[in-house]
Amino acid sequence: MLSPIELRSDNAAGAAPELVAAIANANHSSALAYGGDAVTARLHEVAQEVFEHPEAHVFPVVSGTAANSLALSALCPPWGSVVCHETSHIYVNECGATSMFGGGAVIRGIPGDGYKVHPDGLRRVFATTNWCDAHHSQPSVLSLTCPTDFGTVYTPAEVAALSAVAAERSLRRHLDGARIANAVVANGCTPAELTWRAGVEVISLGAIKNGAVSTDAIVSFDPEVNEALGYRLKRSGHVASKMRFQSAQLIAYLTDGLWLRLAGRSNAAMARLAAGLAGVDGVELLNDPQANMLFLHVGEDVERRLADDAALLFYGMGGGVIRFVTSFQTTDDDVDEVLRRFTSVVG
Length: 347
Ligand SMILES: Cc1ncc(COP(=O)(O)O)c(C=O)c1O
Description:
347 residues, alpha/beta, Aspartate Aminotransferase, domain 1, Aspartate Aminotransferase, domain 2, seven-stranded mixed beta sheet, 14 helices, 42% helix, binds pyridoxal-5'-phosphate
């Protein structure tokens, strides 16, 4: 019997050994709770170095949904709207968390090619808004997801152009970086170039999908939102008493480029997989994977056989379209075995 190969999600991957070791290394004596410890103090310094921003401040949380919804609630007034792409996780997959924490703030999902918001789309929102009219939610935040939920990647120039349009109407700028390391690697840019240098004020820094144990974070580049974030995190139960174990992971993650090496592995595995699948008859690749996510049309019969006969673990999107996601744990041998099983099913 074939052993299953994991391509469902990077959420299904395990923890990176370096981050497990970081938890163990932080496990000595006692320390002040709720982020008052030396490890968390060091985390802010590390983030300041890595993001090249003297005021970067990190708020560890336990999930990407917590990072997004709490960051957005601190940026958006209750009468405001968060503008994002209509496929965004915050709009489609977070069960209204931003509206709940945002006191009723709404999310306005808009279309855009390549699963991205485009400047003309944002301008259309502005043109169709009744500004200063209490009957209408007021666009208050632009939230970009990078990589998008469909694996495409904004360039720093695209983020900067969108931030500039958003700033014309004083919208705050947030980036859902659940997989931001994959985007930085795909762009070959610095973390600063994709974020604050491109006008982003607060990011959700994903780490869990890339090897951390129940630790993502909000990184704020704007000290003015930090006080609100502090209260909002506490009220929602997101200030861990033993924060040092989250902070220790984030320090190890960001130090010496570990986060980018882990993401580089998953991007490289996806590139190898996509190159191998591109030559297979009857398979249509629906995107050119820039990060670690690939959508392909295989038809319902092949989809069933890939799951049942080839023991591949993946998500079906309906209509014979499937999604493959690689992670830092996906090896070249895994990819080659996927390709071998794939061609035996299709051929
Ligand atoms: C782009 C994006 N943002 C946010 C999240 C939310 O992360 P979590 O499931 O940890 O709440 C996900 C999860 O898959 C995601 O793909």
